[in-house]
Design brief:
The protein has six helices and three strands. It has 107 residues and is of the alpha/beta class. The chain has a three-stranded parallel beta sheet.
Length: 107
Amino acid sequence: MASRIYADTSVIGGCEDEEFRVHSRRLMDAFVRGDLRLVLSELTLRELETAPAAVRGVLRTVPDGHVEFLRRHVVNLQRIHGYHDVNRRLGYPVLEIRSPREVLGDE
């Protein structure tokens, strides 16, 4: 089973940003291939509605079967602490917030 990776708007927008393009696109390619499973929140989708067309187009490259949707945004300090508490109680690892470069093992 592919690892589930949550991506916020900055990761998707990074595909069209000179500084982050290489690693963000490599991460998106892993989602396209199904090596990783893309997890998105409703907030991320709403934020992308006003993004440039090229950024919105990035998501269209990922097959629907490789995408999972969450009802709430993950990158929020209070929620992260809550997730950590639940995960610890259930014996799961804590959530980690990483850049595409770190997810891909380039750092």
